[in-house]
Design a protein that fits this description.
The chain has 789 residues and is α+β, with helices and mostly antiparallel strands. The chain has 22 helices and 23 strands. A hairpin with a 2-residue loop joins strand 3 (190-192) and strand 4.
């Protein structure tokens, strides 16, 4: 065994592999899990990790595929290939491998996960369903071949059932006969040597002519085959021999079929075992809450790393950086403080990483690929081999220094212990320097103050310590990089009751240099504790700020929802007002129709004009209410400059455009809106700067002016349905006043929503005689042509 393999055992990798084996389904996959070893090839490690990550992602989407029933059938296939006949158990094992291959191949039925590094393993499965069903259709169980296995076997078994029935029928006549009642021990039919017999009393053996096949243990009963059943039993014996021969032929035929497909079945078995192991790695990753470590850089970076064999709920995570800014980490501190667990965690996680396993560490962790992971941990003293603690450690160190290279990770526990402290410390420093010259990455634990000083002064070497709470005399197991540890021997002794006199005497016996160094470490520790408290306070405030930010985001989202609801409510109210306006308009047009019927050429024109003005006022009132609801912000707008004659303005209360005819001294404006003359104050209108002044044509008669001021078409494209319907109703009202007979409404094609809203309004409008979609050349379905009454 190489020292690399011995080190993996020291780091307890076999225990982790046993956990991995427990997650596998098939026994062959469990065996491979227990035999798994770290790869030293970077491409191989990367492939293993990508396969584990792909399986973990697949399990989230589809669950884990089933690998039950996978057994090692390679030996059976080899024997079949040599012409041997397999038994039913072996054939059923092959059928289950084929069935599992078929089901696992069907696991990859869609691309919901996208392409993964293990897709080709699923696609490579052969899944020979014909052979699978031939085996399962022929073999019902380990001890039973189905009648349907062959026509010959079905015929034989049918004949056997008929012969058995004849034999039983002959015996039934005997046991049912009153004349044989005193001769039979019991009126039953039984079997001896696969032949049907009846139990006869020993003293009456001559009463039934037949063959004796057996005698009971007491000798009181003879099992006799009556001559009437001999022929049927003989036939059964012959048929049984034919049945065995046919079964042997069927098994040989199935074995030959398996041998013919040996290569495909073997490949399926290998792929299934490999996939089972990959998914076992993914299951272990979930179980230990692991993640994939990156393979960037040359050094170790572990974030919140936990030893996988400890209770994951109680294990204290550690942060470690090693191999980049410094290549050697010297960990000090009291016994049972977690030093050994820390270096074991580093080594074990590196080994797991190279086995293709995810590691129990947080995101941001990185691990390189080491050619050797070498560990000298624990006391290996041996009385049988005359090895002391120091000798055992030194033997391991010699082998480590022989095998290490520039890609090695070396772990030393209690380096230089077991001998004179001065010489041990000097040896420890020399060993570390030799390994550093080889280019290795090193983590070592020690109690020697000399190594603390060495780590403080030597470039590329860093101190670390395992935190210890003197108040409770308990280790916290936190690894603190950059700070050397204290033994805390005096403090622990005082807490345990040792007198102050003895402790003070002990302090005077410590060298001045050592005392000064320990005092410096104590001050550093006090400073670190204060900084740690400040950091925790800052993190607490940061968490509070983040929580407040989350609450603010939630409140903002809630406010947006409420505003959306308020907007929806406002729109519904606007629709209600619009419906009221439509109803008012319909009433107006109804009365207008009545006026037209009443009017004739001799009617008083002033009476008609008065009625029209009254109707217009009703329309204006509805329009004003609607305009205030739909455009409340326009009430607050003011004109950019004073209004002058010739300007185009919008009347705020009516929402209509008008042209300024004149302006009185008191600021009152005379406006023309369509066919109406309106008076308004300057603050009741809004100047439209982009509207060009309209030329007046004084020579045009009133009817001509009506027609000229109203366009025969209106363009509603780009407008909301509510606004479009409102504008269309106003336009139709003006068109009726202008005595237009046909108008065109341009609403565009689009989704058809605007066209549907317009045509729904036209159906209810009393002024509309009929309407249709445009024809070819008119705009087709993008326009509606309306004929007015």
């Amino acid at each position: 065994m190489s020292f690399f393999e011995k080190s993996l055992t020291t780091l307890e990798l076999p225990a982790v592999l046993a956990m991995l084996a427990a997650e596998a389904v098939s026994e062959p996959a469990r065996e491979r899990a227990r035999e798994l070893s770290p790869s030293v090839n970077e491409a191989e490690v990367r492939r293993r990790l990508e396969e584990t990550s792909a399986a973990k992602t697949m399990m989230v989407v589809r669950g884990s595929p089933s690998f039950s029933g996978v057994k090692d059938v390679r030996a059976s296939l080899a024997r079949a290939d040599l012409g041997g006949a397999l038994n039913t158990r072996e054939l059923l094992d092959i059928a289950r491998v084929l069935q599992c291959a078929r089901l696992v191949r069907g696991y990859l039925v869609d691309d919901s996960v996208g392409k993964t590094p293990i897709d080709h393993l699923f696609s490579a499965l052969h899944a020979n369903r014909f052979l699978e069903e031939k085996i399962t259709g022929s073999i019902v169980g380990e001890d039973e071949i189905a009648d349907a296995a062959s026509p010959e076997l079905a015929t034989i078994r049918r004949q056997m059932r008929a012969a058995a029935a004849r034999a039983r029928e002959a015996l039934q006549k005997i046991i049912s006969s009153p004349s044989y009642a005193k001769v039979l021990q019991e009126p039953i039919i039984t079997q001896r040597a696969d032949r049907y017999v009846v139990p006869v009393k020993a003293e009456c053996k001559g009463a039934i002519n037949g063959l004796v096949h057996d005698i009971s243990a007491s000798g009181a009963t003879l099992f006799i085959e009556p001559m009437a059943a001999v022929k049927a039993n003989n036939e059964l014996r012959e048929l049984a021999a034919r049945e065995r021969a046919e079964i042997d032929r069927i098994l040989a035929e199935l074995s030959a079929d398996c041998a013919e497909h040996r290569e495909g079945i073997t490949e399926d078995f290998e792929l299934l075992v490999r996939l089972d192991l990959i998914f076992a790695k993914a299951k272990l990753s979930y179980k230990l809450n692991c993640g994939q470590a990156a393979m960037e850089g040359e050094g170790i970076v572990l974030r919140r790393a936990r030893h996988p064999l400890l209770d994951q709920a109680k294990a204290v995570p550690i942060d470690v950086e090693l191999g980049e800014s410094f290549d050697t980490l010297v960990i000090t501190g009291p016994n049972t403080g977690g030093k050994t667990v820390s270096i074991k965690t580093i080594g074990l996680l590196a080994a797991m990483h190279q086995c293709g396993l995810h590691i129990p560490a947080a995101d941001g962790s990185r691990l390189p690929v080491f050619s050797h992971i070498l560990a000298d941990i624990g006391d290996e003293q041996s009385i049988e081999q005359s090895l002391s603690t120091f000798s055992a450690h030194m033997s391991n160190i010699v082998r480590i220094l022989e095998e290490c290279d520039e890609r090695s990770l070396i772990l030393f526990d209690e380096l230089g212990a077991g001998t004179d402290p001065t010489e041990g410390a000097a040896l420890a420093i020399a060993v570390i320097e030799h390994a550093r010259r080889r280019g290795a990455v090193i983590a070592a634990t020690t109690h020697y103050a000399e190594l603390k000083v060495y780590a403080t002064n030597e470039p590329g070497v860093q101190n670390a310590s395992c935190e210890f709470d003197v108040e409770t005399l308990q280790p916290t197991y936190r690894l603190l990089v950059g700070i050397p540890g204290k033994s805390n021997a005096f403090a622990i002794s005082r807490r345990l009751g040792l007198s102050d006199e003895i402790i003070e005497d002990a302090k005077t016996r410590v060298s001045t240099e050592s005392a000064s160094f320990e005092a410096t470490i104590e001050k550093l520790e006090q400073t670190r504790v204060l900084l740690e408290k400040d950091r925790e306070e800052a993190e607490k405030k940061l968490r509070e700020a983040q929580e407040n930010a989350k609450k603010a985001a939630f409140l903002r989202a809630e406010l947006e929802v409420r505003l959306d609801k308020a907007d929806t409510k406002s729109r519904r109210e606007a629709e209600r007002i619009l419906a009221d306006a439509r109803a008012t308009a319909e009433e107006v047009f109804r009365e207008l129709d009545e006026m037209r019927k009443m009017a004739d050429e001799d009617e008083d024109a002033s009476r008609v004009n008065e009625a029209r003005a009254q109707l217009r006022r009703q329309l204006n009132l509805s329009q004003e209410a609607l305009q205030k609801e739909l455009s409340p912000e326009e009430e607050n707008k003011v004109s950019a400059r004073p209004v002058r004659p010739g300007d185009t303005v919008r009347i705020k209360s009516m929402g209509m455009k008008a042209t300024v005819i004149s302006k009185a001294n008191d600021g009152t404006l005379s406006l023309r809106a369509g066919i109406m003359n309106v008076s308004a104050k300057e603050d009741e209108v809004l100047l439209l700067e982009d509207e060009a002044p309209k030329q007046k044509k004084s020579a045009v008669s009133a009817p001509a002016m009506h027609s000229a001021s109203i366009s025969p078409e209106i363009d509603l494209r780009g407008m909301e349905s509510i606004d479009a319907v409102l504008a269309c109703e106003r336009y139709l009202d003006s068109a009726v006043m202008a005595k237009l007979k046909t108008v065109t409404i341009i609403h565009g094609k689009g989704t058809g929503a605007l066209r549907a809203a317009v045509q729904q309004m036209l159906k209810k409008n009393k002024a509309v005689k009929s309407f249709r979609l445009g024809r070819y050349g008119e705009g087709e379905s993008g326009v509606t042509v309306v004929e007015l009454k």
